[in-house]
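Good day; I would like, with your permission, to put a structural problem before you. A protein sequence and the structure tokens that stand for its backbone fold form the material at issue. Thank you for your consideration; the sequence and its tokens are set out here:
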Amino acid sequence: MRVIIGALAVLLTACAGPSTETEQMLATPEVVEAVERPEWRLVIHGGAGVITRERLTDEQEAAYRAALETALEAGAEVLRNGGSAVDAVQAAVIPMEDDPLFNAGHGAVFTAAAEHELDASIMDGRDRNAGAVAGVKRVKNPILAARAVMDQSEHVMFAGAGADAFAEDQGLELVPNSYFDTERRRQSLERVLRERARTDADRHGTVGAVAIDKEGNLAAATTTGGMTAKAAGRIGDSPLVGAATYAQNGVCAVSATGHGEYFIRVAVAKTICARVELSGETIGPAAQEALDQVAALGGDGGVIVIGGDGQYEYVFNSKGMYRGMIDPKGHHTAIFGD
């Protein structure tokens, strides 16, 4: 399934000429080229998977939408004040790491050993500098550890105990591993261990953000608690630059969510940006092609993408994806695929 809000071709709209802001978003590539780049824009996701109206109560839907709006506003505040895209994506994902609704930070899923191992990555499109951590157990906000790796080290990724130690050396807040516990996630672990099988929901759960700032700079960030009942030391796509996260000025910024093993094999984020840069594709078709490759291998999930012109896309082949966008003209959130 594909959901697109942004720069896809809609021939009938093109013939008539866009008459509203929404119609402008759905214009043909020729029309989109004439659309002025937004002053700034932020797009977020809170994970993709089997998310349908039947699975969420009205109260749960309202809670997720409120959480998405909180994250959007946190990143937008940076961009409104002239801050950088990389600062904005960091600011946007922190509230989601702190919210037990999402599988990132507090509320992360349990490993098979009944503990938590968290992953995160961040990338600055200005110079393609990047930082990542994998398998951290004590860092309250893994995205801050990833940012510290990018800014304060000569490396791109730290993993395991070394990543926790690096974060501690940088003065980041550490917490006991039990801080990430929630009863909801514990029940999911017990079910998976009892039934010896995972549902699609057990394989999914990631948050991320992409942004373009007033200077036209792009950035992306992705952070996750991983897969329910995963084997100790398993690392998915979220901390891997090129798989779940990529940003390159003038080309695109991507954050992905889904079944990580397949996103790694396709190098989804880099594949999308490479198709835009080298083949001249717009971000929508490029993202769809990458997810088609994921689907052909047996995986599912979704991506958020911002192009160098500020146009954006949500593309996913799962039943839903928590998502939202904000720019100077307004904001929206969405959850379901229909």
